[in-house]
Amino acid sequence: MVTSEMLPVGLLTPISGSLEVSEGTAGLTLTVTGLVGAFSAPLVTAAVGRIDRRAILCSLMVLVAAANVLAAWSPNFAVMMLARVLVGIGMGGVWALAGGLAVRLVASESIGPATSMIFSGIAIASVVGVPAGAYIGELVGWRAAFYAVGGLALLVTVAMALLLPPLPAEEAVALGGVMRLFGKLQVATGLAVVALLVTGHFAAYTYVRPILENVSGVEASTVGTLLLVYGIGGITGNFAAGARVGRSVRGTLLVVGVALAASVLLVPLLGLSTAGAAILLAVWGLAYGGVSVSTQTWLALAAPRAREGVTSLFVAVFNGAIALGAFAGGRVVDAFGTRSVLWLGGALALGALVVTALGRVPRPGGAGTGSAN
User: Fold this and answer.
1) C-alpha distances in angstroms, 303 versus 76, 149, 188, 346?
2) Which residue windows are transmembrane per the record (predicted)?
3) Is the distance from CB of 331 to CB of 340 less than 8 angstroms?
């Protein structure tokens, strides 16, 4: 799912050339997917009612497979955008339903590690998906990368149908009830941190290929390798944060925010060579790898009796932030040049640090009590 969402990141330059649009405009392939995902998450969650979640997940993954094939075929940018809208619909629904499944699949003592395992898919997509897409695009063209991901989506559909148990809905989720969760202070504060971290990350990361080529002087053939370095850092950060966040949500996110801001802001200063870029990308991946599991834990603790509802809000804000980050980054790239998105991304990460340091953060063991750590 996340590979489908992020695939244009490693292919932005060839997509823009083939479909005859600027790199900033090509970045809209990420913006529209995130924006549609943001709206579809709470809507799909409310619309599916009490239908078995396994059936819904399989149906949404078939939609994503078809959307990737359409993107691969797209003769122009309008068709590509339609394909990315379909990816967004599927993505929002899958994220909203799958993000909170750990509690239903494992014993209570294994929920934390299982949640980290589910969210490791995000980091693994960075390690395997985005770099593999860049490699395939370099070898046989960007369209082949979309075809390949479409085929993999069908394989995942078969695996889910065979391996997941029946997952009847625990309760129908009303859209009004989901929206009322915004009124909980700890939920609203957590969503603000998600918005700042993810918007800042994607303002810069959407344009990581142009950054590497234009700022760091990296050859096109080396981009996939550096994205692999980033992804390995992401997997490490995901599990490191998953192990730590159960003890301190605030402390974990403060470390994540400092590392994310520093790695992005230092690229124009220390990332002017392939080696410097590789080191900073590793730290960047390490930091961003901890964002999903840390913020999802925050929100689960803040609303323990509304798991699907708060997860759908998390997905909506997360993907809206992806869309906003990619859009804002594109406008800044086109207006001020590639280097400028790094300053934007770093500034937003620093904003998340301030909110985390000053806001009320739920304490593990004190969910629903209003206590903060």
Assistant:
1) 44, 35, 11, 30
2) 26-48, 55-73, 85-106, 118-136, 142-164, 185-208, 220-241, 253-272, 278-303, 310-329, 341-359
3) no
How many CA atoms does the CB half-sphere of 63 hold within 13 Å? 18
Do the beta carbons of residue 94 and residue 60 sit within 8 Å?
A: yes
Report yes or no: 200 and 325 within 8 Å, Cβ to Cβ.
yes
Domain ranges of the chain: 2-358
CB 99 within 8 A of CB 314: yes
| pLDDT tens column, 56-103 | 999 999 999 999 999 999 999 999 999 999 999 998 888 878 876 777
DSSP-assigned letter for residue 293: H
CB 193 within 8 A of CB 356: yes
Report whether pLDDT(129) > 70. Answer: yes
Could you report the per-residue pLDDT of 144-185, keeping only the tens digit for each?
999 999 999 999 999 999 999 988 776 655 555 566 776 677
CA distances from 287 to 234, 254, 322 (A): 7, 10, 17
Alpha helices of the chain — where are they, by DSSP H?
2-6, 12-18, 23-26, 28-47, 53-73, 77-98, 102-105, 111-124, 130-140, 142-163, 175-180, 185-205, 208-214, 220-245, 249-265, 267-270, 274-289, 291-302, 307-336, 340-358
Which of these, 4, 32, 15, lies nearest to 122 by C-alpha position? 4
Topology (CATH level 3) of domain 2-358: Growth Hormone; Chain: A; (1.20.1250)
Do you know the residue count of the chain?
Answer: 373
Residues β-bridged to residue 372: 362
Q: What is the distance between the alpha carbons of residues 327 and 164, in angstroms, rounded to a whole number?
A: 36
In this structure, the number of other CB atoms found within 10 A of the CB of residue 151 comes to: 12
Beta bridge partners of 274: none
Token pair 């900073």 is found at: 280
Q: Identity (one letter) of the amino acid at 138?
A: E
